[in-house]
UniProtKB/TrEMBL annotation:
GO terms for biological process: fatty acid elongation; sphingolipid biosynthetic process; very long-chain fatty acid biosynthetic process. It comes from the Eukaryota. The chain crosses the membrane at residues 7-30, 42-65, 127-160, 180-201. It comes from Pygoscelis papua (Gentoo penguin). Its EC number is 4.2.1.134. The gene is Hacd4. It is found in: Endoplasmic reticulum membrane; Membrane. This is Very-long-chain (3R)-3-hydroxyacyl-CoA dehydratase. Keywords: Endoplasmic reticulum, Fatty acid biosynthesis, Fatty acid metabolism, Lipid biosynthesis, Lipid metabolism, Lyase, Membrane, Transmembrane, Transmembrane helix. Belongs to the very long-chain fatty acids dehydratase HACD family. Pathway: Lipid metabolism; fatty acid biosynthesis. It catalyses: a very-long-chain (3R)-3-hydroxyacyl-CoA = a very-long-chain (2E)-enoyl-CoA + H2O; (3R)-hydroxyhexadecanoyl-CoA = (2E)-hexadecenoyl-CoA + H2O. It is a multi-pass membrane protein.
Length: 222
C-alpha cells in the first residue's frame, strides 16, 4: 500500500542519513588527522552507530509482518551479528573501543549500508539505476566476508579483557555448582559466526543471480 511504501521510504531515508553521516565523518576525520583519527572512531561516531544498528532491528519486524519480502533468516543473522559485536563486545570493553579494527569494521558496515539504503530508497519510488543495482548486489559479496573477519578479530582482541575483568561471567553461589565463563561463549560464537557467513554468502550469490543473472532489474524489498 501507499502508506506502507511511504513508511519504508522514510525508514530507508533515516538509515541512509545516519550511515552517510558516519561514513562522511570517518573520511573527513581521516583526511584531517590521519591515523590519529582511527583510535577515537568509536568515541566520535559510536552513538549514531548504535542508534542505526538498534533501528535496523525493525527490518526483522518488517519481514515478519510481510511488508518486506526479504528472507528472514539471512537478515536475522546479519543484524544479530552486528548487535552482538557492537553492544556486547565493543561497547562493554573500553580498551577495545580504541583499536583500529573498530574503525575498519565501521567503515565496512557503513560502506555497505550507504549503498543498500540508497538503492532501497530509489526502489521504493520505482527508480532503478543499473550501476547502483549492480553495486548493491555485487559489493556485499567481497565486503561481507571482510566484515566477518573484522568481527572475529574484534572478538579475539576482546578476549583478554573479558578474561581479566570477568565481564558477563557468572558464578552462582553454593549450593549451585554452575558458572558461565563468557570468553568460552565468545569462542563458540566465533565458530557460529563463520558457519553463518557461509550461509549468508550463499544467499548473497542467490540474490545477485536472481536480480542480475538475466540482465533484468527487479524490485528488491530489503
Amino acid at each position: 500500500s501507499f502508506t506502507m511504501n511511504t513508511y519504508l521510504f522514510v525508514y530507508d531515508l533515516m538509515q541512509f542519513c545516519g550511515h552517510s553521516w558516519i561514513f562522511t565523518n570517518m573520511i573527513i576525520r581521516f583526511m584531517s588527522f590521519g591515523k590519529d583519527s582511527l583510535a577515537d572512531t568509536f568515541y566520535s561516531i559510536g552513538l549514531v552507530m548504535r542508534l542505526c544498528q538498534l533501528l535496523s532491528v525493525l527490518e526483522i519486524l518488517h519481514i515478519l509482518i510481510g511488508i518486506d519480502k526479504s528472507r528472514l533468516f539471512p537478515r536475522f543473522l546479519q543484524i544479530t551479528e552486528r548487535i552482538i559485536v557492537l553492544f556486547v563486545v565493543i561497547n562493554s570493553q573500553e580498551e577495545v573501543q580504541g583499536k583500529y579494527v573498530v574503525c575498519v569494521l565501521f567503515f565496512l558496515w557503513n560502506l555497505l549500508d550507504v549503498v543498500r539504503y540508497t538503492y532501497n530508497m530509489l526502489a521504493r519510488t520505482g527508480i532503478y539505476y543499473l550501476p547502483l543495482t549492480w553495486l548493491n548486489f555485487s559489493l556485499c559479496i567481497p565486503l561481507y566476508p571482510l566484515s566477518v573477519l573484522a568481527k572475529a578479530f574484534a572478538i579475539c582482541v576482546s578476549l583478554p579483557y573479558f578474561e581479566s575483568l570477568g565481564t558477563y561471567s557468572i558464578k552462582l553461589p553454593f549450593p549451585f555448582v554452575f558458572s558461565i565463563y563468557f570468553p568460552y561463549i565468545l569462542k563458540i560464537y566465533l565458530l557460529v559466526l563463520f558457519i553463518g557467513m557461509c550461509f549468508i554468502i550463499q544467499n548473497l550469490f542467490s540474490e545477485r543471480k536472481a536480480y542480475l543473472g538475466t540482465g533484468n532489474i527487479k524490485k528488491k524489498r530489503s
